[in-house]
Amino acid sequence: MKKQMSMLIMIFLIFSNALFLLTGCQTNASVEKIESVGMLIEHTIHDQTWGNKGYRGLLDIQEEFNVDVYFREGVQTQQQVNIAVEEFANKGVQVIIGHSSTYGEYFNQIQDSYPDIFFIYVNGGYSAQNLISLNFNSLAMGFFAGMVAGGND
């Protein structure tokens, strides 16, 4: 799952940069290099499940793309999101990942105030120019997991 999450984020970053180039107003538009990524985690990175996998994915992004990474644990309310996003903005973070579907509503409330930050969260329906959700197709994942578990007899 860690590899899947980091791969999805990498694909998204590549796709969004390409899309920006294709839809830019100027033909000589340049894409700003992403230098820092932040992640908000609802609970803890020490849970050995979802939070830990997200954190390890963030470290993979740091290693693969040579970017600075920041994270905040225990971010569960709109007020906590507002504070963490402001801290990240002050550090120059350009991409903020909300490692839960609950961040969609929170990000949607504040994304207009941060046009230079791109917000990503998982499994939701909110979107804007700088807000997107990565949705996992769990039906397909379940199907393929069943195929693998069943073997190839």
TrEMBL record:
Main location: membrane
Keywords in alphabetical order: Cell membrane, Lipoprotein, Membrane, Signal
Domain ABC transporter substrate-binding protein PnrA-like, first and last residues per copy: 34-150
Pfam family for this entry, one: Bmp
Annotated localization: Cell membrane
InterPro entries: BMP_lipoprotein, PnrA-like
Keyword Cell membrane belongs to the record: yes
Top-level division of the source organism's lineage: Bacteria
Membrane recorded as keyword: yes
GO CC term (a single one): plasma membrane
Full protein name: Transcriptional activator of comK protein
Provenance organism: Gracilibacillus boraciitolerans JCM 21714
